Amino acid sequence: MNRRLLWPAVVLALLLLLNLFFTPGFLSIEVKDGHFYGSLIDILRFGAPLVLVSLGMTLVIATGGIDLSVGSVVAISGALACLAISEGTGVFAAVALAVAVALVLGAFNGFLVAVVGIQPIVATLILMVAGRGLAQLITDGQIITVTDASFKVIGGGYLFMLPFGILLALVVLAATVFLTRRLALGLLIESVGGNAEASRLAGLRSRGILITVYAFAALCAGIAGVMVASNVSSADGNNAGLWIELDAILAVVIGGTLLTGGRFSLGGTVLGALVIQTLTTTIYSIGVPPETTLLFKALVVAAVCLLQSAAFRSKVFPQRERPAARPAAKDTTEVAR
Amino acid sequence: MTSAAPILQLTGIGKQFPGVTALDDVDLRVLPGEVHALMGENGAGKSTLIKVLTGVHPADSGTILLDSREVTFGSPLDAQQAGISTVYQEVNLCPNLSVAENVLIGREPRRFGRIQWKAMRRRAAERLAELDLDLDVTAPLSQYSLAIQQMVAIARALEVKARVLVLDEPTSSLDTGEVEQLFRVMRTLKEQGVAILFVSHFLDQVYEIADRMTILRNGRREGDYPTGELSQVELIAKMIGRDLAELERLEERPPARTTGTLLQADGLGRTGGIEPFSLTIREGEVVGLAGLLGSGRTEVARLLFGADHATSGSVTLDGEPVSLRTPQIAMTHKIAFCPEDRKADGLIPDLTVRENVVLALQARRGWTRPIPREQQAQLVDRYIKALKISPANPEQLVRNLSGGNQQKVLLARWLILEPRLLILDEPTRGIDVGAKAEIQRLVAELSDGGMAVLFISAELEEVLRLSHKVGVLRDRRLIAELPNDDTLTTEVLMQTIASGGRS
Amino acid sequence: MTALTGAVVPRKYLPVLVTAGLFLAMFIAGGTRYEGFFSAQVVLNVFIDNAFLLVVAVGMTFVILTGGIDLSVGSMVALATMVAAVLLNAGWPPVAVIVVVLLIGAGLGLGMGCMIHFFEIQPFIATLAGMFLARGLCYTIGTDSIPITDPTFTAAAQTQVPLGGELWISPSVLIAVAVVGIAAYVLHQTRFGRTVYATGGNEQSARLMGLPVARTKLGVYTISGFCSALGGLLLAFYMLSGYGLHAVGLELDAIAAVVIGGTLLTGGSGFLIGTVLGVLILGLIQTVISFQGTLSSWWTKIFVGLLLGAFILLQRVISGRKK
Questions:
Q1: C72, C76, C120, C125: which to substitute to probe chain A, counting the most A Cβ within 10 Å?
Q2: Which end of chain C has fewer beta carbons closer than 10 Å to its terminal beta carbon, N or C?
Q3: Is residue B21 exposed (0-12), middle (13-18) or buried (19+ Cβ within 10 Å)?
Q4: pTM of the predicted model, to two decimals?
């Protein structure tokens, strides 16, 4: 793995060690009823929706954009799936419907950004606000409870001794890696995010790529929404996925992908999401009042962003940064290093 | 012309950037009440000199005397307060504020902290009236044309009692009428004793308005001359004339083995970019474009690649009419384009050599059809070897390469698409002599192999050495198309540029 | 430049006029549909219920005019109610409490401004950190709702300022209106205010024109923090409690009000009166929904989202496509 993954990995390891110190059996995994059990499994299981949303967010951020609407999409998709099941639709059809609607919503975001030319943060704000209302409209302001056993599997069931949610997140991760690294989506995304004008002059159609990426982000959010709803066997239009967009953006940033776009790291994002989830778990397990989670998050956001800021580094560590911060000289002078 | 003491005198100005001497012992003397033109090609040091003068960069050596007193400026604000104001090509005002505010903001009349709007409007109107402008000063600036905005910027500069006004390429985006208006204002200012330092690429304009000119080349001063005493040919020779110590001529270029017309542009043009032009490019032919900076040479290239939309004219390819609206369309017709500013418009600096090289091919295939790794490795490896890209590591980030190697990466990107027409906009600018020779040799080889090349360069020798035919541009017009036979020399080219094709 | 310029209405007033027209249309439509809607007190109630939002939106207007954004306002409001409640219960005099709360708000705002200006962190991220921090501080202080029993605060909550006839408003409305007035004066009559517009119009140019861009950017985030704290105090008057879950999502309402009021999110263009109209429209939507009785509260969000979309598209059309 490369050096960018180092810091999030170190933070994750430290958090785990901290837990081990307070709860000696923290890292142990045991088999009960033919399933794996343990705190690590829990972190993965509860972190799965965040991992999913963050994967989509990574690609959006790599194009230089941002998607604020994923939280609302999580709520809409969960609500739709539960509504459909409670009305007697089959689980498979219900889930397909929820995910398809999410896809359409994402394409709408992409259309606003790529075709109409609205700043991503503004364009996705629309769906962020209206989507929350839509989700409540779907659930009619109630919490829809479903009792379907096969639906419960998605977020709460097991397969191959592991929680199904973890496997689902792994499948989506694998699919994302496949799309971006085996297929050429990743190269084109990094190219558009790295230098939009040069990409245009190299013959890239950035419109199609942007729409694809926003649709993909919403798709991931849609799957996460189904997972969240399944886990608690109910849909809550008001609270499902609330603020998950902020956690996802944070996970992406911790994972070393710059908000300005360009190079992205899916591995880093997964690590970032796990850091956030572990932080939450840690706060519960070491007995710090859970209310302070947000304080820690604020400190982590501030620290990570300050460390990423070139202005901060050059002002605070002027000595060490000097060679790298040297202004790009005229072409003639730069010799390959 | 008053022969008073210079209002502004720069002596022995030197400025180094890491590894590069941008200015070397440059002198500049500007008299009160004169329009003084600052001339030079890309990289001559004009913009650095202006930045030193206006306090953006500190000079490494030399002195600046303003009114015979030595001054040093830490910021543009310092320079403004001392009486040196600058108006840039892209107007640096706030388009959302009213005209009056743009003239006066920061110095608006106030009483107890409250802005006196009436007094402010009156004062702004007065300033503008001094420039013969009658505008609605309450209207937002964005309602007015760029020319008017430029005048407002000048009015703002005068509000601080500027004694030296620096106009940095003010006319680049103005039409003829607007230029006339600007010149009227400049003449009015002259009469009031303001010294104007004027940067422009348009020779006609310089000869019309300037009293004297200082010519820079490669960071050194070539001299200063009263406009009347320097012919246009002499001026061009001083700006771009023979420079390199006579690189030995490549062996005589064989006549192009032209098999037929590849591309034919008829009346192709773009309002505000390039006047309609017609140009024929044959297979296996190298067509050079010669002209000064800002003459429209880049605009020709961008139109032929579909990077900009043409507003008039048509193009045929192999005799078939085509509409080159986007780069993708140009690429399907096997046209390739290496832009002038390779960092801003060409490369993705954060990606590797391999990724940059396969980018255009991948873009053409779409992301669902990746190029297999082995094929990528082969392709990239072949071009790293063929073009001698160094370091020969496909996973090196492009940002870490030298200029010459970056240029080769860009070339490799297009060569793997096997284009029929390769457009090279200043491919040898800012790269070392070795890489330059390699790129020139490559162009010759490619054309011998049947590829057509449109070759743009500010260096006339280079254009002559490589081209079968030279198109000459001036002031956004293609003024001549000359076959490169024994009679064509740099002198003839300079003469053609200077005469504006009117001879 | 299109031919539209210089038409009957200057283009810069167009968004505000659209907003005003929309408000009138909604009010008239409501009046014809619902009994008892067509009264001045209905409008005054909108003011009474949204005084705190109005104050917060004023601060947000400053930030957005410079081209920035402030996500922290909702959390700051909650923090203000919390700090006020705790200090009052600890026996502090109300005046001291108010001063401390306002100082905390302004201080946190200034802190975020420093992150944004000196370390070049995007406003979105810096204020996101501020949002987490303020909300986290709330929960750290306490997770339960803390009632406020201070006589000054309860008086502020219960006093009715008569306006003649049967009409009345709350003291909070007076404060909010005063804030709007002062802010409008600052934006249009002082050098600071004009520099806010200049910075949003073109930051680079403003700098080259010699304007104090740095000070201005720090200033707007400080103002926004101050306004959030003041809005929090007004909310404390209204709710008579301090609670970490107060004002969740308020930042979205404030941003929506500013945008619906015709202020460009890219900065440099907009009017405070637009923001007032934006807040009134948000309030009126709620009023209409409560009058309708059969419409559920989530329709508010859907309507707001749709309006937001419509106004963003309108702005896009007005400002034209920039490349």
A1: C125
A2: C
A3: middle
A4: 0.80
